[in-house]
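Researcher: Quick one. two chains, 487 residues in total.
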Amino acid sequence: MRMKFLASIVATTMLAGTAFAEDLRIGVEGNYPPFSVVAPDGTLSGFDIDIANAICAKMKKNCVMVQQEWDGMIPALNAKKFDIIVASMTINEKRKKVVDFSNPYYDVPSRWVARKGDYKSWSQEELKGKTIIVLRNSPRAEYVAKNYPDSTVLAVDKEPAVYLELAAGRGDIAFGSSVVSAESFLKKPEGKDFEQVGDTLFLGEDADGGVGIAVRKSDGALREEVNTALSSIMTDGTYKQLSGKYFDFDVTPQSAKK
Amino acid sequence: MFQSYLPMILEGLRVTLSVASVSLAIACVIGLIGASAKVYGGMAARLSATVYTTTVRALPDLLVMLVVFYGGQILLNSISDKYGWGYLDVDPYIAGVSTIGFVFGAYLTETFRGAILSVPAGQIEAGFAYGLSRFQVAFYILLPQMIRHAVPGLTNTWLVMLKATALVSIIGLDDMVHRAGLASAATREPFTFYALIGLIYLAVTTFSVLLFGALEKVSSRGVRSGGAA
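Model:
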């Protein structure tokens, strides 16, 4: 009797297992607007979700979104809870030891922000003697230290704090991530008197490695499929249309522009 | 914005309560078995119960959960790959309640052991002297009297467990804390949602304390209380 019961449990789990083995299961997060957000009714939206759906359409697969807490993301991928991760995961050496990444699908440029009308550009001459606010120990802090020897640097310990300091007048111009400056400052009431100065810029591939889609180390073929789908949405205009919905700056990774 | 996320949070409360109560039931069963093994068991039963309570109480809950969920899944995958069964999924709900039940079963083993020992041995002997079977002694004499001693410890365990259920979000179950995090991110109003679930937890724990208090009162009927009971 007991064996029969156990056998039926094994049988049903096996059936449940094979039923969705053909689908592509995508691990997403839901806690990182505007990339991944959960609506009141539980539906997911955001740039990550749109990209996931777009590559899915190109790969002609039936996709299932699996929402996963960030901390368990990589273990869940390796335990085959899902097959790829589309969750704004920055490509870095440490992660590359446990998973493989597709080509980057977006990269966040840096930008300068100051009070409206204060500056026309971010040239060294114009910023001479001024105080630049940056995140401590960030690639941007290195960039400023190297390229603006005649300016003062105010280093803060959190990215959003860059804009608090700017609004409080403790510095003249802020240099930070385009996404953070938009989401936590420029789009909010406290940022209404401030604007972007000049163009956005990428600090180079080493500093901003870009964000990729993670796959298991053993899934080389799937990684190639994802890369093919990514480059096809980038060439057919889908990518531009999707990123335009969320960002007023270009997020196309450097490597895709070459 | 706030009202629109309310149903989602309440659905999370349902998950939290369901995980916590099913886990409590599992923990109670494990606790009773463990306590009986420790008090009445032979050498082997006592030893395994001691190994269980010592190791499980020593490890962080999160660690046990990750090992069971991901470790179990990886083990299952390697077995199924070997036999070509395809992908077998460990259901997060089952993994969650069995892990929490398994962890808190260790605490309840000790609670119940203490409670069993608080029942005077003479009561048990009297039961056997009247010709009751082992089952009758356990059910009619031991259990009703030990509950009184077990309730305070059980209440504590339940309260801790209710909050420990927030760990299940790591393994993909959408509990209340996880949903509050999602709602805060979407609305950029972290304080609102965390304050809300704080109040919900307070309401649930207050209600539980009252309920367990009533249980303690019922199980203590006929016992003279000297004020400090």
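The radius of gyration of chain B is 21 Å.
Researcher: Thanks, that's what I needed.
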